[in-house]
Amino acid sequence: MVSRRNILAFSAALLVVASIVPAGAFSFQSYDKAVVEKAINSGASVVVHVYAPWCLQCRAQASILSELAGDKHLDHVKFFKVDYDGQKSIADALGAPRSTLIAYKGGKEVARMSWGTSQEDVMKVLQAAS
Questions:
Q1: Which CATH number applies to 26-129: 3.20.20.105, 3.40.30.10, 3.40.50.11540, 3.40.50.2020?
Q2: Are 99 and 57 in contact (CB under 8 A)?
Q3: Alpha helices in the chain (DSSP H)
Q4: Which of 30, 48, 106, 127 is the most buried (most CB within 10 A)?
Q5: pLDDT, averaged across the chain
Q6: Contact predicate 121/98, CB 8 Å
Q7: What's the CA gap between 24 and 76, in Å, rounded?
Q8: How far apart are CA 114 and CA 129, in angstroms?
Q9: Percent of the chain with pLDDT over 70
Q10: Where does the record place the Thioredoxin domain (predicted)?
């Protein structure tokens, strides 16, 4: 039986969750070659993160990206994540070691950074894409 108390508690929980995730926050999609190529070829701004969960530099980059998720200047950028361990052939095809960010804009690569862990390093790539 659904009571008024349960409905109110559920509504309150939804409000809390909605306030945690910033409006317009970007999120990473899993890398799918056809989807990414279509986005790049359309001229869209695209950022690809080659990531391994055990990689300290990757996690540092992911933390910085997470802090920037609410930046409205990045709302139009499409973000994709390559699983370095599970999608090794894609990482190889991109010529990217783990802990790499690649920015595309206007159908071409405009920035690339590997191993950088400062906010400045990450921002340079994001700014090139936006």
A1: 3.40.30.10
A2: yes
A3: 4-20, 33-41, 56-67, 88-94, 119-129
A4: 48
A5: 85
A6: no
A7: 9
A8: 16
A9: 81
A10: 17-130
